[in-house]
Amino acid sequence: MKLISGILFAFAAAQDDDAERSNYYGNKPPSYKPSGYNDKPTYKPNYSGGNNYGSGYGDPHFMISSESQPAFCFDFKPEADVEFTLLADGSSGLKIEAHSAKLIKHETHEHVIMDEIKFTSPEGRVISFDIDGVHLSGSDESASDRHPFTGVQTFGDINFVTHADPHGNHQRTHVEVGDAVFMIRGNARKESMAVAVIEPTGLSQESEGIIGQFLRTDAYTVEEVDALHAKVTIAGQTIDAEKKPFHQQVACWVVDEDAMLNLIGDL
User: Fold this and answer.
1) Residue 169 structural domain
2) pTM, whole model, 2 decimals?
3) 196 in a domain, yes or no?
4) 3-state SS, residue 261
5) How far apart are CA 51 and CA 27, in angstroms?
6) What residue stretch is flagged as signal peptide (predicted)?
7) Cα angle vertex 47, ends 42, 51, to 5°?
């Protein structure tokens, strides 16, 4: 097992104390102690770093953050029963995809959720996550036994550590591929999945996908017009943003869903 798996364990252990505070976690630069996704930030960011991060949540909606820029958020509504790419690293071959499904409740309310997150590693190992747990494919080999102290398992070039809730449902898994670390969470009540890039080191400037395209250096800028309005520029195109509550986030620079969909299609 690689020595860097100790870093994977550190990420997992750091969030054990907060596990009951929120179904999903917000994505913040690792120089800050993560707080719950529902919490107000406990720091004043100085935007002096260079890494970018991205998170995708159940229904689905996304938050992109950076050490050099304020975060921005947007909704994304795919058709049901399709796969879409969250991250594709053209240099390493790492790929992360999501599957969409229609969720119907009370016969009158329906919406589309991400019900599966799937990683394909540079060596072709496949690890997927749904509300039932973790599933491995792409090799006749099995994952290693859990490390007696860290709980980390190895499957080819993937290291991962998984946690379940008291009822045995998949709660969260930290995944390490190369130097990059990701977190996948399940929400049993909403039957949906979420994914976050929590350590982007090693992901190349060739990354694409709904999250991957924003991990490049200087992928976006946010120019605040006033306290409630801003201009978000992505790949030379500028769209309006408004600071307001976003799902369970207290406040975020929210860009229009249709404008964002058109922009993503052009990238």
Assistant:
1) 5-216
2) 0.83
3) yes
4) helix
5) 12
6) 1-19
7) 105
